[in-house]
Amino acid sequence: SLLRVDGARLVIVGLTTDPLNIPVEDVVAGRDAYASVEQTLQETLREYDGVTSELAGLGALASQDQRATLKSIGLISPLGILAVLLLLRLVERSWIRLALIAIPLVLASGATLGLVGLILGVITFTEAFFGVLVFGLGIDFALHLLIRLREERSGPGDFDEALSRTLKGSGPGIILGALTTVTAFAVIAT
Asked: Which residues of 107-135 are buried (b: 16+ CB within 10 A; e: fewer)?
């Protein structure tokens, strides 16, 4: 075999489960198929002094990357949300209005992931990734509306008139942008 090296042995292990189609909680907890293979290998090699192992291939790389990414997302997502809200603070000075932006986005992300979990029975890496992406897009839409509202408030009229002009002017674009996003996600899901 071309893969033969003195003092080494190649063992091919095939997984029947797609490493990217595993529930998020199983990946983070180390209960996925790859982690099981890795654990079995380590337990087996404890009996043999001086024998080491390395795992390679798409399944191993995908699983390692997925585990590292999900652990990072768990830490970075709340920090990212705070960072985005602090950046929005440059546009909107009121903490109450910032909370009024953040609360619906967090609830929408949670409801979306909950509905996916209810329908599919699991939340995999792909759904978790899109949950974070949807939050970012929601902030983007909110930013467009906030800036337009600020521009409208600098003109004549009270807040109600400025809000009405904002929604009439930016609303159709925001709705079309959201529909484009929904369509793109539907194509990816299909």
From this structure: eebeeebeebeeeeeebbbebbebbeebb
Q: What is the pLDDT of residue 60?
A: 77
- In the Cβ-directed half-sphere of 20, how many Cα atoms lie within 13 Å? 7
- Give yes or no for a contact between 168 and 189, defined as CB atoms under 8 angstroms apart: no
- Rounded Cα distance between 149 and 34, Å, is 51
Q: What angle do CA 177, 168, 87 make, to 5 degrees?
A: 60
4 φ, ψ (degrees, to nearest 5): -80, 130
Helix 95-120 × helix 125-153 angle, to 10°: 150
Question: 44-54: per-residue pLDDT in tens?
Answer: 888 888 888 88
Residue 91 has pLDDT above 70, yes or no: yes
* CA distance to 49, 105, 117, 135, per residue, from 82 (Å): 49, 13, 26, 12
In angstroms, the CA 13 to CA 29 distance is: 22
Q: Give residue-wise pLDDT tens across range 113-151.
A: 788 778 877 777 677 677 777 777 777 888 888 888 888
Q: Quickly tell me which residue has 């404890």 as its tokens.
A: 46
Q: How far apart are CA 46 and CA 138, in angstroms?
A: 50
Query: What is the Cα 86 distance to its own chain's centre?
Result: 20
Please provide residue 23's backbone torsions phi and psi, each rounded to the nearest 5 degrees: -55, 140
